[in-house]
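anyone else get weird line breaks when pasting these?? whatever heres mine. first is seq + C-alpha cells for prot A
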Amino acid sequence: LNIRRRCYYLWYSTSVQSMRLIIFFGIILLIFKLIMLTRRETCWLDKYRSRLFCFVLTNEANLENRARAVYETWGRRCGRFVLVTRLNSSIKCKNENGKSVGKCELPIENIPTLPDETYSHLSDKVRASLIFFNKYYPNYDWYLKADDDTYIIVENLLRFLISTIKRYPKPLLYGYRFREDYYVSGGAGYVLTRQAVDLLSSYIKNDSIYSDCKL
C-alpha cells in the first residue's frame, strides 16, 4: 500500500510539475509572440509613416504656443510635417531660455500665394496650400490637413489608412461628415489621397470654378 502511495505521489508530483512547466513555457511563448507582433506592427507603421504628409494651418500669434505644441507632440510622428502661415522679417521665435531669436526652428512652409490670415480667407488659405503641396510635394500617398488646436493620434490614423489601401487609385477624402451633402469639418482634420489632391487642385486652380465652389 505504501509503495502504491509513493508511486501515486511521484506520478502526481511529476504531472503537476509537467503542467507547471507547460504553462510556464506557454506563457513565455505567448509573451514572445506578442512582442514579435508588436515589433511587426511598429515596422509596418514605420514603413507607411513616410507616406503621410501633414500640414497644419496656423498664424504668427500662435507660433510659440499652439503651433509649437503640435510640432513637439503628434507632428513629429508624420512622415513630413509643416506649418502653414505667412512669414515676414518681423517674425521671431523664442528659444528654451525665453530669448527671442531671429530664425524660427519650427518647420514653417512659406507659401508665396497665401492670403491674409483672417477667418474669411480660410478657404483661400487651404486652396493655396493644396495647390502648392500638389506641385512641390507630390511623392506622398496621404495628405492630412489640420488646425493648430487639433490633436491627431497618428498611429491610429495610419492603421485606418493602411486598411484602405486596396481602394486605390480612387481619389478619396476621409473625415467626419457633419452634413448630408458630404461636408467634413476642417477643424477636426481630414485626409486626402494623392489622387484626391491632384484632382482637387486641377479644379481649384481655375478661379471661376473655385468661385462657384465657394458659393
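and prot B, same format (seq, then C-alpha cells)
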Amino acid sequence: MKFVLFLLLVGAVVACRKRQECHRAPPQPTFLKEVGPNARMEYFAILMNKTATIAELNEAVLAWAKRYNVEKQQEEYNNTVTAYAEELKHNVTNLVAELPKALDRFISISQRKDQTIADMMKGLKEMREQEFEVFDVVWKAFNVFKPTYCLHRNHKKPGYSLNLGRLDDDLENGLENEDTSEEFELDGGLAEMHGLGGFSDALKFL
C-alpha cells in the first residue's frame, strides 16, 4: 500500500493558477464516506502516528479497513494513489530535464542591457505564462541561493533581496505602472530600482 506516499506527495502538486493549466487532482479517500465519524477519527489517528514505521502504518490501515468492511475500497484507493504517484514522478522528471533550457532563457531575459525594466518584466511575465512550472522552479531557486537566505536567520532583516511576493504579483498581473522609477519593496524597506543599478543587476541578489 502506498497511502503514506500519497501524504508525502500531495504537498508537491503544482497549484492551479489563473489562466494556467490545472493538473489532475490528487486521489481522495472516498471510502471514508462509507464509515462513521468514530471510524474516520480512528483512521486519521493512525496516519498521524509519528512514531510508527511506514510498514506498521500500512498494517494498521489494512487492519482498520478489514474491521470496517472497506478493504476493497481502500485497496482501490491505494492503486489509484500508486498510479498518481507514477504520473507525478513522470511530470517532475520531465520538468527537471527542461530546467537548463528554462534557466538559459530566464537569464537571457533578465540580463539584457538594451531594455527597460518594464520590458524585462514583460518578458519574464510572458515566459511565466508560457511555461509557468519551470519558471516558478527557477524563480524560487534564485530565492534559495540569495545572499540573505539562511534557515536559521530571520529573513525580515534588511538586505539586498527583492520581495518575491511582490514580484510574483507583478508577473501575474502585469505592470500597472511602467514608470521605471517605480519603487519595489525590499526585505526590510523600500528602495528605488535605479538605486540597485537596474532590475537585471538586482536579480543577482534574489
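btw re prot B: The beta strands are 183-186, 189-192. Residues 2-20, 155-166, 174-206 have pLDDT under 50 and may be disordered.
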